[in-house]
Amino acid sequence: MFAGTVQQMRGPSAEPGPSSQSNLVAIAKVAALQPFNRPVTKATHKSCTCRKCGVGSCQGKKEVKYCLNMCQDCGLKNCKGRNSKKPQIPCREGWSD
Questions:
Q1: Does the first or last residue of the chain, that is N or C, have fewer Cβ atoms within 10 Å of its Cβ?
Q2: Are 53 and 70 in contact, with CB atoms under 8 Å apart?
Q3: Domain spans, the chain
Q4: How does pLDDT run across 22-35, given as a tens digit for each residue?
């Protein structure tokens, strides 16, 4: 009678059973998905600037005809600025097609 009550107080066995194996599988699946759970970062882009004077607050960033500043390459006010298709080339060489 006394031996039967001691056996009941032991609790569940320490050997892994089907419930602990399924927990390990679930943990492995979650660990495999961790790289995909990161929040998506929004890509930043360079702000628009005037192609003639290169200033971001200039009215010419919408259309060059609104720019009242001098050209960043040649220094002329009546220049049409850099070619937007070739922004690395100065104004004189960019429009010479």
A1: N
A2: yes
A3: 50-97
A4: 788 888 877 777 66
